[in-house]
Structures are given as C-alpha cells and as structure tokens.
Automatic annotation (TrEMBL):
This is IMP cyclohydrolase. GO terms for cellular component: cytosol. GO terms for biological process: 'de novo' IMP biosynthetic process. GO terms for molecular function: IMP cyclohydrolase activity; phosphoribosylaminoimidazolecarboxamide formyltransferase activity.
Amino acid sequence: MAAARIALAKAGKKAEGSVMASDGFLPFPDTIEYAAKSGVTALIQPGGSIRDEEVIAAADAAGVAMVFTGRRHFKH
C-alpha cells in the first residue's frame, strides 16, 4: 500500500483515468480502494495472493477493471 500511495501522490491529477501496474500481487483490497479514489480505472497485477477473491470483489465494487498476468515480474 505504501508504494501505491507514493506513486499516486507523484501522479497527482494525472492518475485520473490511468492504469496502475504492480510487479507483485496485491494482498489486500485497500490498494484497489485507494487507487479508485485517486481516479485509477484499471489495474494489472500478477495475482497469487490467498486474498485474491477479496481484491477482485474490491475492484468490482469500485468499478476498476483488473487483469491478472499470472506472472511475477521481480525476483528475491
């Protein structure tokens, strides 16, 4: 959530109507809710959290389109 807050703060008004991407799965719906309030209309993420169903429900409730890639884009 902290990274999303920083990104959306930097985007400012440019976030309105934008697409947000995450290189890791979103474990909680709060990121979706915050992104929607900032004007994000779609989100792409790898998925794979045990809470994916909650995240999907939050996206549906907020009217945010979401795509799951099924692929993580970073390695530890």
